[in-house]
Write a structure and sequence with these properties.
345 residues; two-stranded parallel sheet; single chain; globular
């Protein structure tokens, strides 16, 4: 059995490779990462979508795990289109009618339509370029892949369930830093809205199960989520701020204050026009970045999981503790309060 993994050094790919290597009777695997230098004999450097597959990847592959992606929410349309071409390029990729493709997507691939605070016009109603590119790649996989297909859709990804460890602090971890630094002077969203998270090892478990299991006869979609057991925005803030303050208390550092919650409607109608006028360029950039979390942290309905995440609150707390231990300077910083900015002229 031959297994190929793309994006092998990313947040998800790192976990998947570790599990496949540890599996009993694990097969030989070749691991690919695009546009990076190979670190060992099992890593092959390949610019997917820009170059044909290297000779090292020739031959039949029983399973291809496609985890390579550009995950930034701030991608421009041009950057997102380039990422989509890399992720969806089938012509130069190994695999055939007997290859099981396990494609890592996102639970948010359904998009959000007609939301004024999102980038709907630029990305055809999707929240950002990452989400749009994943939706396009799913469609390409369904229409062009000739073999068995499994689509794996995780929500926001945090650290491992028990240790909080993760290959890279990105995505939701941006919110942790914003809360400590004082950049998140308010949090915009619905207090009772749903917030779906998954530990990275749960995502890797779902992918590994698909890889080592029987390939589906028809395309299968695995949705990783807590469903009705997911956190609300209110509980998420309680856990993040409470856990950060526990870490700060252990070091004799004063606690941070939990920022107030402001509804999306109130923010867009009243606060945002003022922030555009009176905040500094740096503060304004922080506002725009945090605004991207609005629709992810206060959904009106949770996802319907096929792979259920249990006790997401404990998962989140473990991730906060690990982040604080790895980033003590950030976790123990003194918050800087916002001040009004007087534009020149």
């Amino acid at each position: 059995m031959r297994i190929l993994v793309t994006g092998a050094t990313g947040v998800v790919g790192t976990e998947v490779v570790a599990r496949l290597r540890a599996a009993a009777g694990a097969p030989t695997r070749t691991v690919v990462r695009a546009a990076r230098r190979a670190a060992d004999d099992e890593l092959v450097c390949w610019r997917i979508g820009e170059q044909p597959a290297p000779r090292a990847l020739a031959g039949h592959w029983d399973v291809i795990v496609h985890a390579a992606a550009s995950t930034r929410w701030t991608l421009s349309r041009t950057e997102a289109a380039r990422a989509q071409r890399r992720a969806a390029a089938r012509g130069d990729r190994p695999g055939g009618p007997r290859t099981h493709l396990v494609q890592v997507s996102t639970a948010y691939v359904g998009g959000v339509r007609n939301a004024e605070d999102l980038r709907g016009d630029e990305f055809e109603g999707y929240r950002n370029g990452y989400e749009w590119s994943k939706a396009v790649c799913e469609e390409v996989a369904r229409t062009e892949h000739r073999g068995p297909l499994t689509l794996v859709r995780p929500p926001l990804i945090v650290g491992r369930r028990h240790s909080g460890e993760i290959a890279r602090f990105s995505g939701p971890f941006t919110l942790f830093q914003a809360l400590v630094s004082g950049l998140a002077a308010v949090v915009v969203g619905d207090p009772g809205g749903y917030t779906e998270i998954s530990p990275v090892d749960e995502v890797a478990n779902a992918i590994t199960a698909a890889v080592l299991g029987t390939p589906p006869a028809t395309p299968h979609t695995e949705v990783i989520a807590a469903g009705r057991g997911s956190l609300t925005l209110d509980s998420l803030l309680d856990i993040v701020c409470g856990t950060i303050n526990e870490c700060r208390a252990d070091r004799g550092v004063a606690p941070i204050e939990r920022p107030p919650l402001v509804s999306v409607d109130s923010w867009n109608r009243f606060f945002l026009p003022l922030s555009n006028q009176y905040l500094s360029p740096f503060q304004g950039q922080a506002v725009r970045l945090l605004a991207m979390f609005q629709s992810y942290t206060s959904m009106s309905e949770p996802f319907e999981p096929t792979w259920t995440v249990a006790d997401p609150g404990a998962v989140l707390a473990a991730s906060v503790r690990n982040w604080a231990a790895c980033k003590p300077r950030l976790a123990l910083a003194v918050p800087a309060p916002w001040t009004l900015f007087a534009p020149a002229g």
